[in-house]
């Protein structure tokens, strides 16, 4: 039975989308069946995966015939028909030989006008994602940088929330408290049927060579138990990240040896192990 994971942090630009893309790709490399649902009208994940394909994008605009998550919520498109399959191949040295490895990721695209869709039913997303647990090991929902009726329906649908955050200032603590209070509101409400819980926070763009970040990390480790902090963090890695966006390929495909790719693979393994331990 698969799990639904959301990346929630109201603060913008902390690396949510980048984390979902690279965790999904790393898990796909580990032969897990993964789906990314782009839940953000900025369509960043959708553009990352499909932006170089004329069948889907005309410049920065998604073609009108593409079926999206919003169409599925509105009942205007069939879920499975709306999912796009992405296949990447790469070579890895396995037992002294180079072997071809396939990385398969499914994507349910977002649309720029999805915020206009009526989302008054808090189970609107859960009704869709519950049925996906038989199909996938991991379903990721890429959250927008906001807190509104949309994110509430995503939270209700999720089993676990990961909190990507930047290290070195109070924003990460505030981000954690903000997510925690949203989740507790759901957990204490007997009328809401949801399993949502925090899996953990992790740092993105971590610069261990900067003293303030090192100190902030040490401080965070001291309160680790209270805060559910994951062990693995992702180092700042500018060039591979830019190349990955330019090539529309996850880091494990276009820059597998980069610091960020190595960290995302380690984080994917930690998440997989933690979740399997909970089952
Ligand atoms: N490890 C990293 N090293 C360097 N740059 C990174 C790293 N992770 C993310 N970035 C960059 O940080 C920026 C923000 O990342 P991303 O779009 O994933 O954030 P986000 O939290 O999803 O943003 P939003 O809140 O707008 O949805 C992007 O330009 C991305 O390339
Ligand atoms: Mg994003």
Automatic annotation (TrEMBL):
Gene3D superfamilies: P-loop containing nucleotide triphosphate hydrolases. It comes from the Bacteria. Residues 4-189 form the AAA domain. PANTHER family: COBYRINIC ACID AC-DIAMIDE SYNTHASE, P-LOOP CONTAINING NUCLEOSIDE TRIPHOSPHATE HYDROLASE. This is ATPase involved in chromosome partitioning.
